[in-house]
Batch of 3 targets.
Target 1
Amino acid sequence: MGSNHDDISFSDYALRQDQLDSIEEILLADLVDHGANNVLLIDMAGNIIAHKNNGQCEHDIYSLAALASANFAAVDTMAKIIGEQEFSLLFHKGETESIHFSKVSSDFLLIAIFGKSITLGLLRLKVADAINKILKIMK
Amino acid sequence: MAFVNMKTKEVQAKIVFYGPGRGGKTTNLEYIYKKFRERIPTEMVSIKTHGDRTLFFDFLPFDIGKIMGYDVKVQLYTVPGQVKYDATRKLVLKGVDGVVFVADSQVEQRKKNVLSLKNLQENLATYKKSIFKVPLVLQYNKRDLTDMPLLPVEVMEKDLNSQLKVPSFEASAVTGQNVVPTLKKIISATMASLQNVLK
Amino acid sequence: MGSEYDDSATFSEYTLGPEQLDSIERVLQNDLIDSGVHSVMLIDMAGNIIAQNDNGQCDHDLYSLAALASANFAAVDTMAKIVGEEEFSLLFHKGESENIHFSKVNPEFLLITIFGKDVTLGLLRLKVAEAIKKINEVW
């Protein structure tokens, strides 16, 4: 029975190893190499699909992924309550580190943690590029 | 951390349904929502995954009427039960006034019940609350299942309630059996602990 | 083990008398609603609504919004800690016609404003900052 499998989430999507490899290459080449410190592709349940960082991050990425998916879903629900389809932008700014959220598709979110080595403008551009490429791979 | 509004004579209290994943926390709230639809003016809020698992919480505000001259609103929340959601689960517990622990009666879930209760104790402690002092009710859910081996109630009492010694109910959230008595019990326990302030 | 716990005080550490609540509601009215904000709530971190005001044309589900806003604020706050930030400074979500803005009043309280096109974000921030200052003076 299903209840045995509490820790296993069955997903609607299936990604092959070569697809995951390609996605990680994109995270690295488009985002980390341009100054993003830590990048995660997660699903809406908070599972980490792919991640890359600059080798200097020791963030607890599992908690981060769970919190990020919950944050996104809570914001989405608030949007519905006040009569909006969705809110366009999700970005949190800190003193030195900031977090940027982007919806890749109805199943996935791209989370980028970045500092002062990349501007928000450039990051957005790079995130948009990366999302386009990731979507092509997932097809 | 209930809030008493002396001006509007309104009390808001937070009751959280805790327990292992797929134990029936959300089903409890859904039953309450269905049963008391006319007293709950808003939609139930559920933040869940595409796979229908609770991701952050369910939320149901429930107006229970006047107690000692105050209009009492209990806010019912569930937590995500899956182990991996501990960070979010902890957040939902903030400011909790009463807890319903929904245990899964299936034999194969025995260990998960114990681990989840221990997790509740740890997470309450991060808010400087003791599981021995917070208003708490246990619910042994899924007693309606006939095709699965179930734990005898005595075993569940021994596993979960031998030290706590709090009220417990055999229940079925799916059929609604003892869902309302569980709710009534936690509300009265929570209100009793708040009463000194209302006087 | 009792001494390290404080459950006997299940109640909020703050108490607000009717006069204080009146003063707070007056601030919400004069500084925010009269400036064009559609709906405003002062909530605590557990999701309780402390004070509320609107322009009479909103029928949002306020209790749900308060629950979502407090939980979401906590999620964002935890993410900040994970990436090594004290807190994230800005929490604002933009929709097609309605926007939502969150501000921390103090460690206990959040101010939530919902506003449309009749207030700019700049003006809103100014008004929110003033309101917060006044609210903090009330107790």
Target 2
Amino acid sequence: MTDLTKLTLSQARDGLAKKSFSATELTNAFIDRIEKANAAINAYVLPTPEHARAQAAESDKRLKAGNARPLEGLPLGNKDLFCTNGIRTTACSKILDDFKPPYESTVGQNLWDAGAVMLGKLNNDEFAMGSSNETSAFGNVVSPWRRKGKDGKRSTDKLVPGGSSGGSSAAVASDLCLAATATDTGGSIRQPAALTGTVGIKPTYGRCSRWGIVAFASSLDQAGPIAKTVRDSAIMLKAMASHDLKDSTSVEAPVPDYEAVLSKGVKGLRVGVPKEYRVDGMSKEIGKLWDDGIAWLKAAGATIHEISLPHTKYALPAYYIVAPAECSSNLARYDGMRYGLRIEGDNLIDTYEKTRAAGFGKEVRRRILIGTYVLSAGYYDAYYLKAQKVRTLIKRDFDEAWNKVDVVLTPTTPSPAFALGEKSGDPLAMYLEDIFTVTVNMAGLPGMSVPAGLSSEGTPLGLQLIGKPFDEETLFRTAQVIEDAAGRFAAPDEWWMKG
Amino acid sequence: MQVDKATVRRIARLARIKITDEEAQGLEKELSGILDWVKQLDEVDTSSVEPMTRVVGQALPMRDDVVTDGEIAEAVTRNAPKSEDGFFVVPKVVE
């Protein structure tokens, strides 16, 4: 039998429908592979094989009875930021300890209601704060990709899978699930997707419910999938998105059938290329990747237009005010009283302080302190209010661009995957990873990363598509054209299966 | 702009995070670096710009003021470090 873990989500769906294999066989193939490979990749912080087998058995009954749901029997990974009913959820922070939520996130519930199977909880940067998955309390995730040296041989240096959804990107890229849930506050779906040769979409703010997802920065957080192909990501988002009364920022709008638009092509589509994204010091290979993307879309009938988004350079500094401010407010709830870790102190304040010092990692503490500072008396106007005004200008840039173009094309990241430890000592260098992605969160727009080529080191690079609010359909059909032209990229050698 | 040690201590107290002297020293430098970097926003003229309060232009939805959930004290307190009879047990606050 062929290796079932190599299938795409849509191929697996077709195989189940044709009864070429059962949901139990498919699920067991992934469970075996996770057992073999997880020690090397560290994508799963909690595999849930028994839970998965039970779901798969139920799926097999439905498949047999002919009442299969849209994702019936398809095994997925679930980022540990999504609360799972009765199953440990930690946001990869010590402060949540052994927290077992008595409820399920809405996005998760939508997936299980659609018949999907959960293989386990996936690693991420602590509270989704990071761009390399190096801040997780469960340790680093290792990318399945390895650099090619000058001699053409693959080095054994460990590369980061991106972050914060590094467990999601690495699990998908190493065939440890068919697709995964992820979240994106400043680039946490798109950057890891770009660094691992996978597809990731952050939908418009409000498209997916945030209910039951551990909060980082509530005005920026949004859930979305990481998957092997554009089609798979379309299938996933359709199932994840919904209007939800439990999240007052979720939007009451019908969720289109994204899969149905994939073949529409880009003939006559106006593609914007923002000149401000040609940043100083952009590497030649990123420049070439971008040019390739432009050429592919042009060849498929799109028209290319240079546009200007003049406030682009201010998006990242504004983000590093807004996100820490909202983080300091959201993370105030971790006080050791109602759930999670408690370190007893001499009095109530001492208990709070000791609990939070022991429970939060370094990057999370840093962001809470920055957020507390910018929100503190006398500084609110100078920092937070200023940043929110700049945010209005960033959104206005895009509003004007939409008069001229239908979609915007940029690189996803300024550089390919870096090695573990390479940037973790310098917070500002790490923050610059998100230079091309944060604008999208600041403006609440949908953004998607699609693999488009390999770097000189033989590691993946992604192109980013940015769309109008709630126009994910245009992103999917444009991404399909790029995928058709660029092909797909799989990590060679499967070293992680060799023990 | 410079965040001094006293400011780091004040902020850490506000944020209810205990920090050591060594950590305070490191944070002085890190926070100053980050805050200096975000100060580039001062170049932007925002005198006639409204701050963004939400990205999607929709009014907050209203719903009937009725109980939709509840009577689940056991579930609510299940994860508490200390609980008793459906209540959270917390350190003594009033002497």
Target 3
Amino acid sequence: MTVTTLRDAVALTDRPTRPSALGTTLTFGWRALLKIKHVPEQLFDVLVSPVIFTLMFTYLFGGALAGSTQAYVQFLLPGILVQTILFVTIYTGYTLNNDISKGVFDRFRSLPIWRPSPVVGALLGDTVRYTIASVITIALGLLLGFRPEGGLAGVVLGVLLLLVFAFALSWTFIILGLLVRSPNAVMGISMLVLMPLTFASNVFVDPATMPSGLRAFVEVNPVTHLVTAERSLMAGSPDTSAILWVLVASVVLTAVLGPIAMRIYRTKT
Amino acid sequence: MTDSPAVEARGLVKHFTSRKSVTKAVDGIDLSIGEGSVFGLLGPNGAGKTTVVRMLATLLRPDAGTASVLGHDVVHDADAVRSAVGLTGQYASVDEDLTGTENLIMLARLYGFAPAAARRRVQGLLEAFDLADAGSRQVKTYSGGMHRRIDLAASLVLAPRVLFLDEPTTGLDPRSRNQVWDIVRVLVDDGATVLLTTQYLDEADQLADRIAVVDHGRTIAEGTSSDLKRSVGEGAVHLRVAEVTDRTRAAEITERVLGTEVTYDSDPHAIAARVPDDGADAVPRLLPALTEAGISVPEFTLGQPSLDEVFLALTGQPVPDDEEPAPEHGTRSRETTEVPR
């Protein structure tokens, strides 16, 4: 290190112009992809949990619940896809919390950029993770005998709808990531919320046989609406009211939680 | 432009409220840093130094008071401040999962450099900071000194006119520390304004034109480094006696010869004494006096006053032992560092 090289390296004649909100957001999306490249372990859960869940439930309950594993996987797969993606959204809060405790977050907040871009960019990067998890789950389903009547179009539309909802739901975990003390606490709390939501739903069984109290909960559970919409799309007979419900819920979640999250982000001490 | 200060703060206050108590992290601090100068904020852990920097860098909103950087208000004109300031510290780190190059490219892109310009800028910085070979490695594999250099490089991507360095050398070995100091000197030579926080008097002494000593969120002394040292006396004598039983006698002789009070170290062989303002002539007489009394003194040093001694002199109390670490940052534990003698 010599004084002249240091001087030359630091000197800046052409100052760049301030980048657009889209530009900085995409840069943060690129960062999320780089993190997947450097820390592939983080994909382990994404890859392994859908495989385990799908295999376990199909072979454990398939015969008893639907007469055959073939018939059950037909019912189960859209549901297990929803469960898988919802669990993956937790990582959004986990990564954000990690950034805060490592000090990276403050570096970003000290930059002259569109304030939400680190968060929105991370969410964009996360959609890559959701897509990978979706592809794996569906591919495994196809191997096990899942035959969606809706064809490729139905499956793709189903995944897209799920991505929209996952993006909206992630704001919950962003808020959690901003408020909770450690990355592991984010994981713990999120699991505690998501477990009952995904199990007390129509993911695994038809709620018709449930006791009335539980059935009432299942029917208002947002996961149930989402699973209904997914099943209908993949079966090729779209349930417009369920789909509309999911879209409206996504808009409301983003419109309400997004600004709250950004407010906490700005005033975070 | 040249006669108005680069960084100015009036009556800055930040209190952190937790369930049980209110921590007055910063309790009314005034600052005025001239353009092109280095200002040192000196104080122990939890004194409020980091909180001051975080407010000036727009990361924290002051509860009261005003502050501006290059004439831009840190609250109302935050984006202009962010464009002007480079930040390096215990916080404001780089992403350890990414490589050094990726980190800097990302920042360059965020500042608006086009891809090719970003690569050129980053390559130059990596070479200048002796990191060209390490550029393709993840930052988590870097040594402490390399990590601090990449942090510094990250804060210089936009060639800021004002640089905030929060404890830039805490935890570094002497060689890495000297490298950081050399970098800071070059930047200042080129006209940058630097606000430096440190726990080390000698660091402030080496780099800063003016120093403010802070404790419990308040400035307790301010001036040039020679002003401060004069307030503490010429320096301090540290000695170790060979026999523990001789310590009390050695202390008596030292008090008599130097005419100053002696402090007892936790080491049962050691004592320390501040050299009073007019006592420089007495120091050479101390060692013969001890030898005459038959006390063997294997170690005898005359040194600059340490931060402990500055504190003792300014507050009448030793450096607080982190009794109440300010909640300056979430969950991160802060390394505690020995104050060098």
